[in-house]
Inverse folding.
């Protein structure tokens, strides 16, 4: 039986004024995929992601989220998004970790939007999933880049999304934190969450993903991990056994 | 001390001042965090055109200022959206046009320049009962809307793109925010005057942000600072005959500097670095 499509792009293009940023992009990701969207800086990755999320108006082609055209898609609770600038937040912004995670919960609630005891437990659970439950009363600006990223994942996870979009999530984060961050994504993917990860660091993410789309204004490659290894052996890393990772983490 | 409250004009001044102080301070936190600190200034210029037009036609300057401010706020958003010019340029174009109109009308009409000055510099001690009712009602609407949309406005101030992808209608909320600012500017013009109404929006919020605390506490701090400054300003005006609007703003500046020093001292940083 064919898997449900999480995202489907057909002949998508985009330009800023006369500058063509994206040309004729066609690919898809199934539910449960861990897709790496790779390409050099300025290749149009973030623009494409913003088109997929409806943040930019679609000028040509078609984008579907879970089978629904993006222009009529309303089921935003299925979507989790961690933007590129997530670790560049204003350090004086007056928000605690708990308040940031609660944003993800309250945005889906109807009026009156209040946090009850059950919500409080859910916030704790989301923070526990990303290993940050002890920092709930800290101000977000006081945390390191890696810790902030985990908080943003908790904010996305609290609405129990089916798909998580991450735009260059490890920019400015040290090597060890990057590794543990990607492992966390692997675990979430094992739990059934589709993950779309954008990165310009091709070598680093190929070992975590099962599908790769390589972009440089046009789509240069799209296929499975093993197909990518045949296409670009230099940047190919063996897939990490996610099951082993879970055991390692206990 | 309590004899001050025996006077009707002081009762009206305290009621209007405190309610408007709360509205300005709450709205200010969202505007400062969104880097919209000066939109209030632009809307005050727009309101000036409205006040002058109202006086020209002998119609309630308060109502025409409100109409001008709301239409101007929406005009700024439309101009920015349709022409792709930056928001500060859009604010400048619309606000200076309205300011120019106000000055033009004041010059050709003549005769009402003294009244016009009372709107520019504020005259809370001479406020009419009808103006108290209107100002307080508008400020209460602003407070109610902010309370109702608190979480969505908070999310949008923190991260607009993520707020949008979580289903929050950020476009509508942005329009709401500038309309609330327009209402707040007009409702505060009798307290501190159009020239300083933006200061009552920005300064308490800037002071509260120095305390590096949660969002909820920042809002409460901003309100407390704002109410304290208006109360102190009115008391000083009564006892020492100072100009109310200028005193309120100078007290706010003093509170901001104090907050800045406290913040630096708590973090072990020099005042200027």
């Amino acid at each position: 039986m064919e898997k449900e499509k999480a995202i489907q792009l057909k002949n998508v293009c985009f330009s800023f004024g006369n500058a063509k940023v994206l040309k004729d992009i066609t690919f898809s990701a199934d539910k449960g995929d861990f897709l790496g969207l790779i390409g050099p800086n300025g290749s149009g990755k973030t623009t494409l992601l913003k088109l997929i999320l409806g943040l930019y108006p679609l000028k040509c082609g078609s984008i579907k989220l879970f089978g629904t055209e993006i222009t009529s898609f309303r089921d935003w609770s299925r979507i989790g998004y961690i933007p590129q600038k997530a670790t560049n937040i204003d350090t004086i912004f007056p928000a605690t970790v708990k308040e940031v995670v609660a944003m993800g919960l309250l945005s889906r609630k109807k009026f009156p939007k209040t946090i009850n005891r059950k919500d409080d437990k859910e916030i704790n659970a989301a923070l526990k999933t990303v290993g940050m439950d002890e920092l709930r009363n800290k101000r977000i600006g006081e945390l390191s880049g890696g810790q902030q990223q985990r908080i943003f994942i908790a904010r996305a996870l609290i609405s129990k999304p089916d798909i998580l979009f991450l735009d260059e999530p490890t920019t400015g984060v040290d090597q060890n934190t990057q590794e543990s961050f990607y492992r966390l994504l692997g675990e979430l993917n094992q739990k059934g969450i589709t993950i779309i990860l954008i990165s310009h660091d091709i070598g680093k993410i190929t070992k975590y993903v099962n599908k790769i789309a390589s972009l440089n204004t046009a789509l240069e490659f799209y296929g499975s991990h093993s197909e990518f290894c045949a296409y670009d052996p230099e940047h190919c890393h063996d897939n990490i056994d996610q099951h082993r990772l879970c055991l390692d983490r206990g | 001390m309590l004899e001050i409250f025996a006077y009707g004009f002081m009762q009206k001044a305290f009621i209007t001042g405190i309610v408007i102080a709360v509205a300005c301070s709450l709205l200010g936190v969202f505007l400062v965090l969104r880097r919209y600190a000066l939109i209030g200034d632009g809307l005050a210029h727009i309101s000036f055109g409205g006040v002058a037009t109202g006086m020209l036609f002998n119609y309630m300057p308060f109502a025409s200022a409100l109409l001008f401010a709301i239409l101007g706020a929406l005009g700024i958003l439309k101009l920015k959206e349709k022409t792709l010019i930056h928001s500060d340029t859009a604010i400048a174009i619309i606000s200076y046009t309205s300011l120019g109109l106000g000055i033009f009308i004041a010059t050709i009409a003549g005769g009402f320049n003294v009244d016009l000055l009372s709107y520019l510099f504020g005259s809370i001690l001479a406020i009419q009962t009808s103006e108290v009712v209107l100002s307080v009602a508008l400020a209460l609407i602003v407070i109610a809307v902010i309370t109702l949309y608190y979480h969505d406005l908070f999310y949008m101030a923190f991260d607009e793109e993520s707020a949008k992808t979580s289903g929050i209608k950020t476009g509508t909320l942005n329009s709401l925010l500038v309309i609330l600012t327009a209402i707040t500017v007009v409702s505060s013009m009798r307290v501190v005057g159009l020239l300083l109404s933006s200061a009552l929006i920005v300064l308490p919020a800037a002071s509260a942000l120095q305390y590096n605390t949660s969002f909820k506490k920042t809002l409460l701090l901003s309100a407390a600072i704002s109410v304290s400054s208006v109360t102190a300003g009115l008391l000083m005006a009564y006892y020492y005959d100072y100009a109310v609007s200028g005193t309120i703003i100078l007290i706010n500046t003093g509170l901001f500097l104090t907050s800045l020093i406290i913040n630096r001292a708590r973090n072990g940083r020099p005042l200027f670095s």
